[in-house]
């Protein structure tokens, strides 16, 4: 089974196929043929749970669903959910192009939950915070279904306001001095982007250092200082994540997966996977 990739045009009433918002229970019912199996998206997704309990698995990490749970997913992340109690809340999608209209001048990647693959796609809101965010989302949903002048601009401004509020809540427990943008933030963002593009073909840090116009040693120093990992760690983590996705969801043999990920020898891929994940590809496949 290949992992389905959902696109905005598969959902009704999109804003020029760039924005969508719905009551969660309605969304889960009307799109049940799309959303009740493991899938990924070509868009950004946010969902607030105001009711319900269960588990939300995102890229093989399990998160608890309960009132106040807010999840924010980037394009390409795989996820599925299992509910113990009926869920309720609000879900919205948008393309990157929708947010990058000229009305908004700041960098979309400044929002911490979208800034790095290393940042958790989740925050837990208390009751007051949940009520505040839910109220903002209800107003956004009402605007989406209206025919007011400057509708798209108002949706964009409201979405931006919600993201700012969520970012403040996401970072509220961090020392204020750490909230300032670090000099190397752009370099690390560019590194993640390069790894995302080239990890199947390029597995050595020197390639990424050359692309970023720095030395391998300097790049590794920056990554280690800011993330507590090496450049090789970041590359390996992306390879292993893609391997897990393919092992569980793709109709490929383990040898074919190794080849797809740029390994000419399955035994080397198997050793690499076990060293980085603690289990062999076959053991991982059997587990799921």
**Structural class of the helices, strands and pairings?**
alpha+beta
Total number of helices: 13
Overall average pLDDT = 86
Write down the Rg: 20 Å
Give helix and strand order, one letter per element, not per position. Answer: EEHHEEEEEHHEHHHHHHHHH
The total tally of domains equals: 2
Could you tell me the strand content as a percent range?
15-25%
- Envelope shape: globular
Identify the quaternary structure here.
single chain
Protein name: Helix-turn-helix domain-containing protein
InterPro entries: AraC-bd, Homeodomain-like_sf, HTH-like, HTH_AraC, Tscrpt_reg_AraC-type_HTH
Keywords: DNA-binding, Transcription, Transcription regulation
Organism: Mesonia sediminis
List the helices and strands and how they pair.
Blueprint: E1 5-6, E2 19-23, H1 24-30, H2 32-35, E3 40-41, E4 44-58, E5 61-65, E6 69-73, E7 79-94, H3 96-99, H4 112-115, E8 122-124, H5 127-144, H6 151-170, H7 185-198, H8 205-211, H9 216-227, H10 231-249, H11 254-260, H12 266-277, H13 281-287
Parallel strand pairs: 1-3
Antiparallel strand pairs: 2-7, 4-5, 4-6, 4-7, 6-8
Structure description:
It is a single chain. The protein starts with a strand and ends with a helix. Strands 2, 4, 5, 6, 7 and 8 form a 6-stranded antiparallel sheet that branches. Helix 8 packs across helix 9. A hairpin with a 2-residue loop joins strand 4 (44-58) and strand 5 (61-65). The chain has helices at residues 24-30, 32-35, 96-99, 112-115, 127-144, 151-170, 185-198, 205-211, 216-227, 231-249, 254-260, 266-277, 281-287, and strands spanning 5-6, 19-23, 40-41, 44-58, 61-65, 69-73, 79-94, 122-124. The protein is of the alpha+beta class and 288 residues long. It is globular. Mean pLDDT is 86; it is low at 177-181. The chain has 2 domains: 5-176, Regulatory protein AraC (Jelly Rolls), CATH 2.60.120; 185-287, Orthogonal Bundle (Arc Repressor Mutant, subunit A).
């Amino acid at each position: 089974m290949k992992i389905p990739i959902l696109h905005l045009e598969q959902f009704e009433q999109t804003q020029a196929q760039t924005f969508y918002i719905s009551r969660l229970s309605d969304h889960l019912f009307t799109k049940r043929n799309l959303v009740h199996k493991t899938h990924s998206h070509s868009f950004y997704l946010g969902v607030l749970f105001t009711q319900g309990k269960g588990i939300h698995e995102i890229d093989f990490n399990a998160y608890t669903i309960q009132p106040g749970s807010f999840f924010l997913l980037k394009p390409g992340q795989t996820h599925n959910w299992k509910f113990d109690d009926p869920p309720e809340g609000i879900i919205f999608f948008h393309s990157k192009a929708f947010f990058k209209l000229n009305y908004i001048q700041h960098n979309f990647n400044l929002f911490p939950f979208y800034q790095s693959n290393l940042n958790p796609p989740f925050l837990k809101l208390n009751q007051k915070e949940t009520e505040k965010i839910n109220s903002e989302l209800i107003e956004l949903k009402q605007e989406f279904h209206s025919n007011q002048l400057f509708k798209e601009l108002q949706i964009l401004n409201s979405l931006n306001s919600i993201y700012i509020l969520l970012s403040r809540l996401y970072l509220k427990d961090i020392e204020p001095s750490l909230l300032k943008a670090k000099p190397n933030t752009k370099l690390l963002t560019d590194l993640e982007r390069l790894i995302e593009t080239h990890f199947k073909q390029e597995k050595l840090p020197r390639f990424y250092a050359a692309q970023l116009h720095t030395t391998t040693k300097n790049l590794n120093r920056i990554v280690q200082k800011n993330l507590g990992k090496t450049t090789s760690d970041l590359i390996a983590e992306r390879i292993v994540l893609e391997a897990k996705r393919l092992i569980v969801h793709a109709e490929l043999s383990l040898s074919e997966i190794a080849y797809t990920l740029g390994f000419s020898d399955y035994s080397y891929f198997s050793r690499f996977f076990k060293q980085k994940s603690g289990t062999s590809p076959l053991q991982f496949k059997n587990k799921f």
